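Re: [ENG-882] Designed sequences occasionally contain unexpected residues at chain ends

Forwarding the minimal case from QA. Structure tokens:
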């Protein structure tokens, strides 16, 4: 009798552990593609996101396909700045990220001087 009860308890325990639990998500993600004026991808561009409320910054670099990703950012308003020598700096103001949002900001960089 005790063995059957123990097996039942262990079975219930295993079943309850197998049920996936979804965690509360209070972040957002941001990704995008950076291209030049001809539509070619731009690798190695520096992408900076700055939280306007906290002034905290995160930096990423575009990959060989021109993409950047910030997988987990706190919700809020951001400024996104994209820079690469030889191109004008691109700035996107007031990007509002909401809970669970998967935002995408594609950018076309214009040719400029090194000082720009």
């Amino acid at each position: 009798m005790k063995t059957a009860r123990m097996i039942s308890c262990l079975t219930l325990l295993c079943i309850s552990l197998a049920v996936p639990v979804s965690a509360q998500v209070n972040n957002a993600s941001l990704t995008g593609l950076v291209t030049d004026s001809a539509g070619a991808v731009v690798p190695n561009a520096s992408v900076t996101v700055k939280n306007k409320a906290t002034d905290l910054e995160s930096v990423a670099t575009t990959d060989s396909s021109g993409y950047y990703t910030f997988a987990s950012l706190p919700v809020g308003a951001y400024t996104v700045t994209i820079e690469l020598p030889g191109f004008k700096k691109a700035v996107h103001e007031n990007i509002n990220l909401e809970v669970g949002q998967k935002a995408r900001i594609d950018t076309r960089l214009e040719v400029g001087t090194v000082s720009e």
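QA comment: On inspection the terminal residues look reasonable. The chain has one helix and eight strands. Proposing we downgrade this to a documentation issue.
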